[in-house]
Design goal:
Elements: E1 7-10, H1 16-27, E2 31-36, E3 50-54, H2 60-68, E4 75-78, E5 83-85, H3 93-121, E6 124-129, H4 142-162, E7 167-174, H5 181-184, E8 186-188, H6 200-215, H7 221-232, E9 239-242, H8 244-255, H9 258-268
Parallel strand pairs: 1-2, 1-4, 2-3, 4-6, 5-8, 6-7, 7-9
Helix pairs in contact: 1-7, 2-3, 3-4
């Protein structure tokens, strides 16, 4: 099947990795439905190949309305997500729920809507944009870590569940990439960031370093290219890291004991 006959749905398309992926896929001839809660931010790249759609992955009705009219979906890229920066002690019930509602339940909701189409087609590809923090922990990112660990579990289980229907499932585990993530997609808990917080020293040490590493991270084109590689290569691995930090830390975690790895992370981030 020619690329121009293939249809891709990308969630979280208005900026960063999502937007870069939409552009790259369209250039390769795919018809791309660019899902976003703010589709107007995609009007500047709207074309016959790029079709912005309003899609709120926390709202089943929005998902049904957005996806229902798309007759065929060959590839789903679950990209939408954000990071909560908070200690466990300070996080509110709403903050905890919201983190999982977007990063985990949102992925499951969209998969639930798209899988029947792919099953009837007897083919499809699901690509979950996870994180290298779905395999390693960092303080202040406990809820984001846990949500991405969950995405890795979803990926593993769906690979078994959907194999008989010729549906491939993969995850990409990015490190830090130069996107708007630090500015637009990190939500901070005000108690954690108070000057008199018991965690003030950790926040002052770690938070600026993480933001700096995000802002000086890899180019999003790397993620877009990996998505294209997954689509084009039927034997692509179940998961693959992307970006310098991910390529450094994930192999290190495999090689070292948990305790030795923890010591390396502490040294790297002055913890």
């Amino acid at each position: 099947m020619l690329n121009e006959q293939k249809t891709v749905l990308v969630t979280g398309s208005s900026s960063g990795m999502g937007r870069a992926s939409v552009i790259a896929l369209a250039k390769k001839g795919f018809i791309v439905y660019a899902g976003s809660r703010t589709p107007h931010k995609l009007f500047d790249i709207q074309s016959k190949k790029i079709r912005p759609v309003h899609l709120d992955i926390t709202d089943p009705k929005s998902i049904a309305e957005s996806i229902g009219f798309i007759e065929r979906i060959d590839v789903l890229v679950n990209n939408a997500g954000y990071g909560l920066v908070s200690t466990v002690e300070d996080a509110t019930e709403q903050e905890m729920f919201d983190q999982f509602n977007v990063n985990v339940f949102g992925v499951l909701r969209v998969c639930k809507a798209v899988i029947p189409k792919m099953r009837i087609q007897n083919e499809g590809i699901i690509i979950n944009i996870s994180s290298f923090l779905g395999k390693i922990g960092l303080p202040l990112f406990t809820f984001y870590n846990a949500s991405k660990y969950a995405v890795e579990g979803i990926t593993d289980s769906l690979r078994y569940e959907l194999k008989d229907f010729n549906i491939r499932v993969h995850s990409i585990m990015p490190g830090f990439f130069n996107t708007n993530f630090a500015r637009d997609n990190l939500v901070t808990n005000p108690e954690t960031f108070k000057e008199d917080s018991p965690y003030a020293h950790m926040v002052a040490t770690l938070a600026p370093l993480i933001v700096e590493q995000i802002n000086s991270g890899n180019n999003t084109v790397e993620i877009a290219q990996m998505i294209l590689d997954i689509i084009e290569k039927s034997d692509f691995p179940a998961r693959r890291t992307a970006g310098d930090k991910a390529k450094k830390f994930i192999p290190m975690k495999r090689e070292l004991s948990d305790e030795d790895f923890e010591r390396r992370v502490r040294a790297c981030y002055n913890l």
